[in-house]
Amino acid sequence: MSTQSGITTNPELIEAFKQYITNGDRALYIKIENEQLIPSNVIKGTSSLDSDFDLISNELNEYDCSFIIIKNDEVTDKHIFINYVPDNSQVKQKMLYASTKNTLLRELGTEFFSPILFINELEEISSKGWDAIKKHEASENPLSAEEESLQVVKNMELLSIGSSRAKPQLVTDSSRSLGMNLDVSLIQDLKNTTSNELVTLIIGEDEKIIIYKKSSISEPQELTQGKLLNTQPNFNIVKFGDNLYFIYTCPSGSKVRERMVYASSKLGLLTNLKSNGFEFKKVIEVGDADEIELSEFDDSQTTEVATPTPAANGLRFSKPKGPRRR
Known about the structure:
Radius of gyration: 20 Å
Protein name: ADF-H domain-containing protein
CATH superfamily of the largest domain: Severin
Region (Disordered): 297-326
Number of domains: 2
Number of helices: 7
Oligomer: single chain
Family: Belongs to the actin-binding proteins ADF family. Twinfilin subfamily.
Organism: [Candida] arabinofermentans NRRL YB-2248
Shape: globular
Largest sheet: 6 strands, mixed
GO biological process, one term: actin filament depolymerization
Strand content: 15-25%
């Protein structure tokens, strides 16, 4: 199986994964080399997961991406899957690993993995980081069997709506609601968002929403000071305290096609996120990041509960900057 980027799963990887499961080793590293997913290293480990995190992190650095599969002693027959994409890695490498993750999971079998994590800071791959992840997941209220069934029905309805919707006349293939293509693993990654964390989402080569990067953020002012992606349109989820904010930016100089694709995908993405339990205090739309009004993050303001209508796709500006962009 391959992605639209041409990445394929090497048969050697399938055999290495089977051997890894059979042997009960601690960790398996997977790399992308020569447009193929290949096994790069195995750590046999000890009887203690906490102790083995030091061994696991020693094989990584702050510049190279990697997929890491870790045996989880606390859950039978389940392994931790980590998509490690450090901030200092090359942009091309980031996008390659982000867009290939789902292919790898499907090829190996998603039933083997829980949780599925996106990590971009090496220090998070540690016993301390693992404890924080477990604490965060335990704080979420699990759905009952009845609620899970209802959620599946809702998701199927959304997919049906997305697939039956007529294609727009202006741009074939590009303007349909790409927000419907949300994988379960992506939803899980987003639900792991912690306070003072910024998650940037982009539309990948296979027209699916993918995580471009995660970064820490201490205060809203940083959003206007280069924290947001400024080379193309993007969606962002940021958490301050207990409040989630959704930010859509369309920077100056963005390609016309990109503008149309992202603008037409925003509503579908928001609808899908809200159907999966995400509640945003504010939904913010701007052109360039420096147009964000910091007053939007004032806790004293009324919480925004309504999803923007399709007619709200126009960008809002906080101060005059000459003629509006067309």
